[in-house]
Write a structure and sequence with these properties.
This protein is of the alpha+beta class. The chain has two domains: about 80 residues, ATP Synthase, domain 1 (Sandwich), CATH 2.60.15; about 45 residues, Helix Hairpins (Orthogonal Bundle), CATH 1.10.287. The two termini are about 30 Å apart.
């Protein structure tokens, strides 16, 4: 028996797999989930979800949301998600550099918040890419 993980965005099911273990980027830190985990509802932060399937870890970038764990079913509802195979490393590096530059230029509170969110997303994308190397 294993965990069934379903990642859902507002417009589609991004990922549905059976896994042995999952590590979620919760708002309070990394959260590991194994089979027969107690029922749980948790907020998710921008970050990399890692799923272990047959001794291979598969990363997926999550952009904030919620996860519900119940009866070996993990339902993840997020604003957006990206599979690593869809991320171009060169473009991700450029976006990270641009996000850092925008963070330094930000002056209003709104600009600072938006640039921080963009920076966190860019870092998560790079972290996911680097986890495969």
């Amino acid at each position: 028996m294993a965990l069934t993980v379903k990642v859902i965005t507002p417009d589609r099911v991004v990922w549905k797999k059976t896994v042995e273990e999952i590590i979620l980027p919760s708002s309070t830190g990394q959260l590991g989930i194994l089979m027969n985990h107690a029922p749980l509802l948790t907020a998710l932060d921008i970050g990399v979800m890692r799923a272990r399937m047959v001794n291979t870890w598969v990363p997926l970038v999550l952009l904030g949301g919620f996860a519900q764990i119940d009866n070996n079913l993990v339902t993840i509802i997020v604003s957006d998600a990206e599979e690593v195979k869809a991320i171009d490393e060169e473009e991700a590096n450029k976006l990270l550099a641009a996000s850092l530059a925008n963070m330094e230029k930000a002056q209003s509170n709104r600009e600072k918040i938006e640039s921080m969110q963009n920076l966190r997303r860019a870092r998560a994308r790079m972290q996911a890419i680097l986890s495969l190397k």
